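To the team - guanosine-5'-diphosphate complex, inputs and output below.
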Amino acid sequence: MFENLTDRLSQTLRNVTGRGKLSEDNIKDALREVRMALLEADVALSVVKDFIEKVRVRAIGQEVMESLSPGQAFIKIVNQELVEVMGEANNELNLAAQPPAVILLAGLQGAGKTTSVAKLARFLKERHKKKVLVASVDVYRPAAIKQLEVLSDEVDALFFQSSNDQEPLAIAKGAIAEAKTKFADVVIIDTAGRLHIDDKMMSEIKALHKAINPVETLFVVDSMTGQDAANTAKAFDDALPLTGVILTKADGDARGGAALSVRAITGKPIKFIGMGEKTDALEPFFPDRIASRILGMGDVLSLVEDAERKLDKKTAEKLEKKIRKGKSFDLNDMRDQFQQMRNMGGVSTMLDKLPGMSGLSQVAESDVAEKMFGQMEAIICSMTPQEREFPKVISGSRKRRIASGSGTQIQDINRLLKQHKQMQKMMKKMSKKGGMKAMMRGMQGMMGPGGGMPPGGMPRM
Ligand code: GDP
Ligand code: MG
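Output:
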């Protein structure tokens, strides 16, 4: 899967060299190459442009961690952006409905709908212990109904018998009614495809959608069609609200353009990928796993993670030692914490990684938090070394001076000092239990309920 793209990208990325920071200069060639690789992979042009710009902005001026080369740091950024363009997290099926939950599959002819119905039935049965009934409303293609019957037999799903002389709507309704009497949890409806999207097909499926009100409407699309897959899905979504996409035949797709374009073009998540003709060849779509596969650089990526972990450990140990010696957590330590967050790829990334911090990631996502930490850093930098170590000495006039030096207000200085005090207290309490844990709780205490934040959340910037 995606071999061509992997080859191109890994060659390119290994060529990013140089020392110190990533700069406009040492990534220029690499960016051009990444752009070429994505275009060759048949990723939609708008998506490529956006992608390159995001990587560029993120890369320039980014501190490169001690133990990483600029090339490795660049790979990390490309990886992060790949994950993002594909939708970040795995989107599971939403089956929260009065049973039976109805799933409607739609798509062009030959996309892999019927196969996917069977795969999905098997997946839900095996992984989610669901009782599944399947039905076909494809009354146009001879043997289409029979094809589903055979497959449903194979995966041991309930099959609703229909025939070519029935109306699609009547079949769907009949299937749902039967599912109720048989206490099935899920009904999957297989539909007819055309060679192109045409009005008749659209109005038929719209009427069907309206009548049966599915909880999931999945667009099945052949990944071999590249960026066209995204465009067809988009056209379809304009007429009928899709809840997600199943990308089939990814096993044969050496390019990857569909996987990288669908989310950005349609705004809808890829929920599954088909990886073969057999009924067990269906995988939930995990953007991070796919990104690592595309980069083909599991080794480098784990190296990056390693370096990050080491950095954490070093700072945490330093802090621990200091506190154990009876010294208190000062503003320098507080700044270390903020800088560490930066190194780890931003506040929201860090909050995501830390257990117990999930409640905060929403706040962090708005990037208000990011700005807030930047501001706090600036304030601390405007202080004298003595003030950082012994904040008590900061007088009213010094506060004014620090505020103007850091482009902030006096109340920002006061708030920071108050938060520092709370963290200090927390650190003292927790230091016996040690390390990262204490630090995390310190941060959490600072931001959580009763912490130093003003009521109503983060301060406005
Ligand atoms: P439909 O017309 O949309 O119902 O498509 P079908 O389910 O009949 O599939 C069309 C063809 O694609 C069949 O030969 C399937 O075996 C094949 N197919 C479907 N999904 C996959 C997949 O994930 N990988 C591969 N290699 N073939 C697939
Ligand atoms: Mg079919």
